[in-house]
Specification:
repeat, Pdz3 Domain, 103 residues, PDZ domain-containing protein, 2 helices, cytoplasm, PDZ_sf, 32% strand, six-stranded antiparallel sheet
């Protein structure tokens, strides 16, 4: 399926006990900016959806809005999720994935 290059999306990830989702989250340097997915582990659940990309903004996890959450709080919410993790993400036209690409 073709993923539009910008907009807000809901992504559902199946979660298995003891298996990482494969997301790395980082906080933006500017306060008030959303958390960012900075890396996705190859072969992980997050990678296999084909929807998530480094540079995507993470707006909510399981309907918990993240605008005032730290990276640590977001990771804690992810760990507490049960079988299905619902992420709300925003892709911007100028998704700055190139900033994070490993060479």
């Amino acid at each position: 399926s073709v993923v539009p290059s910008s907009g807000t999306f809901h992504v559902k990830l199946p979660k298995k006990r003891g298996v990482e989702l494969g997301l790395t989250i980082s906080a933006s340097k500017k306060s008030g900016e959303p958390l960012i997915i900075s890396d996705i582990k190859k072969g992980s659940m997050a990678h296999r959806t084909g929807t998530l990309e480094p540079g995507d903004k993470l707006l909510a996890i399981d309907n918990i809005r993240l605008e005032n959450c730290s990276r640590e709080e977001a990771e804690q919410i992810l760990q507490q999720c049960e079988e299905l993790v619902k992420l709300k993400i925003r892709k911007d036209e100028d998704n700055s994935a190139s900033e994070f690409s490993a060479v």
